[in-house]
Amino acid sequence: MTRSMKITLAGTALVVAAALTPAANAATPAELQAAYSAQSGAAAVPDRGQQLFTTRHGREWSCSSCHGAVPTQPGKHAATGKPIAAMAPAFNPERFTDAAKTEKWFRRNCNDVIGRECSAAEKADVLGWLRTLTR
Amino acid sequence: MPLNHPTFIHRTLWVLVAAFGLVHTAHADDRHRGPRLASLPQYAQECGACHVAFPPGMLPADSWQRLMANLPRHFGTDASLDAATVKDLSGWLSANAGTYKRAREAPPEDRITKSAWFTRQHDEVPAAAWKRPAVKSPANCTACHAQADQGDFNEHTVRIPR
Q: Do A81 and B135 make contact, defined as CB atoms within 8 angstroms?
């Protein structure tokens, strides 16, 4: 490994750590997406994010079961009926502004929908797609 | 410890606050015949994200302890939380858990909606009403108890959706 590669990797690790550790929670959706992309080493593919979000993965629920197929409007919890505010950041400025909260919900919901945690690439894809949904 | 010592004053104030709280909740119970409402913003934020922030008095402490120890498998969903938050919420739930006669025994599966008191309180609700899209689940308190999020389950304000 060359010296410049090492420096780049160390720099990437720092960015990801800063965006994803609870100590530095405040973030923008763009920063969180950039951190996930840096972690996976690839740019987000929004179409792939939409596919992941709207289809089922061998289980009862898709992300859309609670958030709607186009999450620009409020959704509804599939089990309890509790309203869930819109997921797309352009329609709900509170979304994806807290790294720890984002990680918590990806962990839980990917487990529910796919039966495992999502990879950094998958999180970048989903966030990338949600960020394409504008008014 | 002298009487004007800050610690003494502090403790005395807390005793007074606690005593007032007890008297106050006793009155509230008389009027609403419901579990007393303790509130913790973190509880409303975390647990209230997916369902009504159920009043802690609706389950006994051992039910809360089992639920909080199994959050990654919470009635079919992953409701996992970081260890520090689990500890804070568990302590608060146990401290405010149901101790009066009707809520002392753990219901089947630790489900509030399977408690004997819950069944009795809802025996006038027709079976079909529970299945309506606007209700969906007996755990969806706010479908009929509009103020459930504030801990108000007063039967005089119940409106069952058509």
A: yes
Q: Where are the alpha helices (DSSP H) in A21-133?
A: 29-40, 46-54, 63-67, 99-113, 120-132
What ranges do the domains of chain B cover?
A: 1-32, 33-157
What domain range is A18 assigned to? 3-132
Q: What is the pLDDT of residues A18-66, one digit of tens each?
A: 555 544 578 999 999 999 999 999 999 999 999 999 999 999 999 999 9
Shortest Cα distance, chain B CAs vs residue A44, angstroms: 26
Counted domains in chain A: 1
Query: Residue A73 has what pLDDT?
Result: 97
Residues of chain A contacting B72 with CB distance shorter than 8 Å: 111
Residue pair A81/B135 in contact by the 8 Å Cβ criterion: yes
CATH of residue A55's domain is 1.10.760.10
CB A124 within 8 A of CB A33: yes
- pLDDT tens, residue by residue, B6-42: 554 555 445 444 444 444 444 444 344 455 566 899 9
ipTM of the complex: 0.80
The first and second tokens of residue A43, run together, are 């740019």
Listed residue (B43, B148, B20, B30) closest to B97, CA to CA: B43
Chain-chain contact of A111 with B72 (C-beta, under 8 angstroms): yes
The pTM of this model reads: 0.77
pLDDT at residue B78 above 90? yes
Question: Are B78 and A79 within 8 A, CB to CB?
Answer: no
Tokens representing A47 are 């179409």
